[in-house]
Design goal:
By secondary structure, this protein is an alpha+beta fold. The two termini are about 30 Å apart. Helix 2 crosses helix 3, helix 2 packs across helix 5 and helix 9 runs antiparallel to helix 10. A five-stranded antiparallel β-sheet has the order 6-5-4-3-7. It has a two-stranded parallel sheet with strand order 1-2.
Length: about 325
Amino acid sequence: MHFARLNQSNGTHKRDIAPFLAILDDLADQVRAELAGLTLQPDLAVDGDHQSLPVDDKEAEPTIDQVVRALQTVIAERNGFQGDAENYDDLANADLMQVIERKRGLPVALGMLYIHAARRCGIAVTGIDFPGHFLLRVQANGKRKMIDPFHGAISLGPAELRELLKSFSGLDAELAPQHYRPSSDIDILLRLQNNIKVRALRAGELELATRVVEHSLLIAPEHEGLWHQLGALYARLDQDHMALGAFEQFVKRCEDPLHRARIEAVIEELRDRLRQDGVNKDPIARTESSVSGSAAKDDTGSTDNNDPIPLFPDQ
């Protein structure tokens, strides 16, 4: 929510996040009450203290099917949160405030609603960096299920997961342990931010993309790829001094000697340019060249490694 607020234009009035947080807490209360009804455990319907579900008594703990059904009923069916397949690339689908207002969003944005509600009820849930699609793994009573927040939290078994993998990675792809790689909370937030950045770049909104990367560094200051992107964006905005500082931060963290040497050359050109009152524009061209090797990821991939992330996505 704070990211959604920060990402707004600096010239606009910042929206209050309190009403949106109240909606999130209400979703959690509804899930708790739904579980109480499904399990016939009235003590689960507490008075808003965000009490965890009992874990000591295995007989009292809800089954995995009951947990999944409660999440589906409350978030997807009763409150109408679904994926926006028709306007998938709309910036609003990655802004959590607008996702709550429109009840439409990207897999990772919707996934955050499920994560929040589930954790407030003591349900173990993990974001999964599945190829091409953000999924959730829910655990209860010793059982696990994969659910898809974009499609109403439907359960996905091995057959459905294999089909999803092949649709993204090709017919020869087969399920492997790395396809179930969990995402940390920071990974999930960076993934959401990356979606906004990619869509801002496609729309030519460089200032918004720059703000998004700046804000991402608040939670991932050692992420070398973000420093690389920030330097490139500052250069495109003719903010040479800021670009110089960002590229210097990148070089401090980069372990690839070839890429580090390229950016060190850009740094020297920026320094010369600042000394010569900005006559030479070559560093911008070099910056664009250095980031055009591969496609930028949106919700089809995470940002959990430190590889430099290209500035401009392939169309």
